[in-house]
Amino acid sequence: MKQKKKPYPKNSDIAKAIIQLFSLKPLVKPEEFVDSVKSLLERNGFYVKLVTPKRVWRIYENMVRKRQIYDYLLVVKEKENTFT
Fold it and tell me: How is the chain split into domains, by residue range?
């Protein structure tokens, strides 16, 4: 019997995992963030071997910039005012 392949996570799946991570573990450290998101995705039945840290951080940054979530990790820099 052929085993069904695990689905590859979409950006929306990673975004949901990020939100779920902050509800389960709000004091996660930036060093543990990517691995925690990957483990949540794996528990939800996704294939995470090809999910890169850059992709997870990009999705996190986009969510913060769109004000979907607060910058809990304090890693996203706001654009400074360039008027002098």
Answer: 11-65
CB atoms within 10 A of CB 17: 25
For 75, other C-beta atoms within 10 Å of its C-beta total 12
> pLDDT tens digits for 44-53?
999 999 999 9
| Tokens linked to 32 | 């543990």
Which amino acid is it at 24?
L
- Given a contact cutoff of 8 angstroms between Cβ atoms, the answer to whether 43 and 28 are in contact is no
> pTM above 0.85?
yes
CA atoms within 13 A on the CB side of 60: 22
